[in-house]
From TrEMBL:
The protein's enzyme class: oxidoreductase
Signal peptide: none
EC number(s) per entry: 1.2.1.38
Record bears the keyword DNA-binding: no
SMART domains on file: Semialdhyde_dh
Pathway: Amino-acid biosynthesis; L-arginine biosynthesis; N(2)-acetyl-L-ornithine from L-glutamate: step 3/4
Gene giving rise to this polypeptide: argC
Keywords of the record: Amino-acid biosynthesis, Arginine biosynthesis, Cytoplasm, NADP, Oxidoreductase
GO molecular function, one term: NAD binding
Function: Catalyzes the NADPH-dependent reduction of N-acetyl-5-glutamyl phosphate to yield N-acetyl-L-glutamate 5-semialdehyde.
Source lineage: Bacteria, Bacillati, Bacillota, Clostridia, Christensenellales
Protein name: N-acetyl-gamma-glutamyl-phosphate reductase
């Protein structure tokens, strides 16, 4: 059994993580930290935990107790303060915020408008996308979980860029997210009346995930990738669907594209590519740790259209964190993780 602690336990990601961890056969949750609800039982806030083990929320004192592993489910800027202290005390850390995702901290500082105060720890952090960095994840004590939009986008594009089947220029990612992607904020803009029966684009041309997607795709493919990323707020609770447009290079056809995906994801337990012409839907992935990808060629325009779906709270956050935890501990990658979506 591995003792773990969850900090930021009452947010949407923290709650989902605790729910998934409760079914993990090798995990014992020793501490769940909340600044706002310290002293209360988790089940008083989230009644879905009534049948589970009683978890009393602890003070947010930066102490992870006896836990070997600490999951940080804090807003960006907060992990920046918490992670260095925990690493110094010898804890292994998996951070779910954006604070340690960049190789180039100046990109973080520019896109998040925050001065990075833990540059040394940032160098230590491994980008927790198992499909591409499994060996590094296996050998680190500090994993930085990718963003939800970024996981969905990078998994769709990386094999095709790496194999030279699409151009690194002119890519457009048109992504839609469920409202839980914004966190458990008490803001009018995320309330039922403002989001239900509505659909809107936001942060057009300047969403911070643009830089994370570009940096990782450039690093994986060895090309200078520049792209447009447009997020939208979808009136559903969970799920991300990204429709991606890319210019095909010479030699790109249904067979070579399927072959490139097979090369990188043939053995990946959670990334599934549908046969040419079949497209994923949110209900095929929501409730699971899967990323599902489909594609269609447009010979008339020379463009490839890719559709990629994840559950933002699972493969986009809590599930991928557990996948990284499993790899860091030498467990089966799938341990404790849902492989079949809810569908309904
Ligand atoms: N929602 C999603 O789909 C995804 C989120 N992420 C990332 O995961 C992290 C957590 O996200 P999410 O659960 O959605 O966010 P929430 O806003 O729902 O939860 C964050 C929690 O952090 C705690 N907290 C501690 N310090 C602060 C502070 N200064 N300001 C606000 N909250 C604080 C709060 O709990 P308390 O007051 O009880 O301590 C809060 O509930 C973020 O970094 C986010 O970017 C990553 C991928 C997907
Ligand atoms: C719908 C919504 O608001 N989504 C969030 C992205 C999710 C998130 O929390 O960002 P990270 O994945 O980087 O942690 C946003 O656009 O800011």
């Amino acid at each position: 059994m591995i003792n773990v602690s969850v900090i930021g336990a009452t947010g949407y990601v923290g709650e989902e993580l605790l729910r998934l961890l409760s079914a993990h056969p090798e995990v014992s949750v020793k501490k769940a930290v909340s600044k706002s609800f310290a002293g209360q039982s988790l089940k008083d806030l989230y009644a879905n935990f009534v049948p589970g083990k009683n978890i009393v929320l602890d003070e947010s004192d930066g102490d992870a107790g006896e836990a070997e592993f600490v999951f940080l489910c804090l807003p960006h800027g907060e992990s920046l303060k918490a992670a260095p202290k925990l690493l110094k005390k010898g804890h292994k850390v998996i951070d779910l915020s954006g604070d340690f995702r960049y190789d180039d901290v100046s990109l973080y500082e520019k896109w998040y408008n925050i001065t990075h105060t833990a540059k040394q720890e940032n160098q230590q952090a491994v980008y927790g996308l198992p499909e591409f960095f499994k060996d590094a994840i296996r050998n680190t004590d500090f994993a930085s979980n990718p963003g939800c939009y970024t996981t969905t986008s990078i998994l769709a594009l990386a094999p095709l860029l790496k194999e030279g089947l699409v151009s690194e220029k002119g890519i457009v990612i048109d992504a839609k997210s469920g409202v839980t992607g914004a966190g458990r904020k008490e803001k009018l803009a995320y309330s039922y009346c403002e989001t239900a029966d509505n659909f809107k684009a936001y942060s057009v041309v300047n969403h911070r995930h643009t830089s994370e997607i570009e940096e990782q795709l450039s690093s994986i493919s060895g090309q200078d990738v520049r792209l447009l990323f447009t997020p939208h707020l979808l009136p559903v609770k969970r799920g991300i669907l990204a429709t991606i447009y890319a210019d095909m290079e010479e030699g790109a056809d249904a067979l070579s594209i399927a072959g490139a995906y097979e090369k990188y994801y043939g053995d990946a337990p959670f990334t599934h590519v549908l046969p040419h012409g079949q497209l994923p839907e949110l209900k095929f992935v929501v409730g699971s740790n899967n990323c599902m990808i489909g594609f269609e060629l447009s010979p008339r325009t020379g463009k490839l259209v890719i559709v990629s779906c994840t559950d933002n709270l699972i493969k986009g956050a809590a599930g991928q964190a557990i996948q990284n935890f499993n790899i860091m501990n030498g467990f089966e990658e799938t341990l404790g993780l849902p492989q079949i979506a809810w569908y309904l």
